[in-house]
Amino acid sequence: MIVHVHLVRHGQTFFNRYNRLQGWSNSPLTQAGLDDAIHAGNALKDITFAAAYCSDTTRAQVTAQTILDINAANGHDVPVIHADMHFREQFYGYFEGQDMGAAWLAAGGPHGAPTYHAIVEQFGLGATRDFLKEADPFHDAESDEEYWRRVDGAFALIAANADLRDGDDVLMISHGNTLLSLMQRFAPAGYDLSERPANGSVTMIDFDTVKSLDDAIEVISYNRR
């Protein structure tokens, strides 16, 4: 059974604006972020959503509600939003809220990769998580394995929704690094993943709810704004 999942990156937050790491932190949307959510809502206003999911952070919930309010204003019945921690961005632990440049220097510097892009180029995206956990004095930041175990759980929640039918459209509010991680894991060649997904952008995937996750996702489009 295939459902069409519309992945929207939440609107801009103050931490986005200040270039600070924001995983489980709960920075509110800026006015530009509210406009991002409205833009996404207008882009999706003609779609009838059978279900809606987001993380339990304010930025994700406000973005989801804004999109569904626009949907309702255009005559669609809208679902109740399922907010759950499985849909959160990766957890940066000790480095939550810190300047991105300083945090990635602390994580990658000991490995000869002083920036986020240097870590990705030399060691892969998964290493950004493992190196950050290693540098975290409390080791609270999520490792790559811990991160994917939680994100896989998010898709398991969608697959377990007995009300979904083949061909249904599903709204899912996501986060920047999670979108990049999903693209790296599932996208075929041809996508420019050096381009971060914009706030309010829409990425679309087809999700086969009865297959194992590694075989269940097909990327349809990325970072439409």
Quick structural summary:
The protein has 8 helices and 6 strands, in the order βααβαβααααβαββ.
Sketch the topology as an H/E string, one letter per element. EHHEHEHHHHEHEE
Determine the structural class based on helices, strands and strand pairing.
alpha/beta
Overall mean confidence score, pLDDT: 97
| Tally of alpha and pi helices | 8
Q: Class of the largest domain in CATH?
A: Alpha Beta
Task: Report how far apart the termini are.
Answer: 28 Å
| Beta-strand proportion | 15-25%
What's the CATH H-level homologous superfamily of the largest domain? Phosphoglycerate mutase-like
Fraction of residues in helices? 25-40%
Number of strands: 6
Q: Uncertain segments of ≥5 residues (pLDDT<50)?
A: none
Largest sheet composition: 6 strands, mixed
Overall domain count: 2
Seen as an oligomer or otherwise, the chain set is: single chain
Rg is 17 Å
Cross-sheet strand order for the largest sheet: 3-2-4-1-5-6
Please state the second-level CATH architecture of the largest domain.
3-Layer(aba) Sandwich
CATH-derived topology of the largest domain: Rossmann fold
Specify the overall morphology: globular
